[in-house]
Amino acid sequence: MSDIRTSHGAAAGALSSREYHLAHEPHPENGTLLGFWLYLMSDCLIFAALFATYGVLGRSYAAGPNGAELFDLTLVAINTGFLLLSSITFGFAMLRKQMGDVKGTLLWLAVTGLFGLCFLGLELYEFYHLIHEGAGPQRSAFLSAFFTLVGTHGLHVTFGLIWLVVLMLQINKHGLSTENKRRLMCLSMFWHFLDVVWIGVFTFVYLMGVL
What we know:
The chain is an all-alpha fold and 211 residues long. The chain has 7 helices and no strands. The chain has helices at 2-24, 31-57, 67-70, 73-98, 102-132, 141-174, 178-209. Helix 6 packs antiparallel against helix 7. It starts with a helix and ends with a helix. The relative contact order is 0.14.
């Protein structure tokens, strides 16, 4: 009987210890960052498939307009500048975060969001202009692949901006807590990833499209 009580006591003690551990350490060290890296790798596969699709269909014009006739490189270069500048300002926000400056972090995040909105605004203007000229996604396989690739990237930027606004509200309310620092790091990885993808879009779609 005493052995049974001892075993029950040991089991209860182990359970109590485990509950204490889960209550105070819900996140394994670097576990969130590892999971987010895995998500980014899955996103890489999505964009790789879209780039491959564009590579196959990018010359299928169906007797319609091609990239040299449609693309305004000056507009696209300005848009690229907006996104690259947003990446730089996000880096400034991360520097202020390291210094524990809440107001500075929020300021640079707001500037980043402004550049992101400018990027989306010009991209929507480009889409509107192309569709108005009769070069919508249904016109040819080339345009279908173009709208899908560039639109998917734009959708990612939109989600990134929503995330940015929510995170700014959390930082304004709770400060630079451990959780918010971890969220900032994940968003930083996501934002820079979108920059890298856009450089690929600018080179592979726009620059090569006008050649």
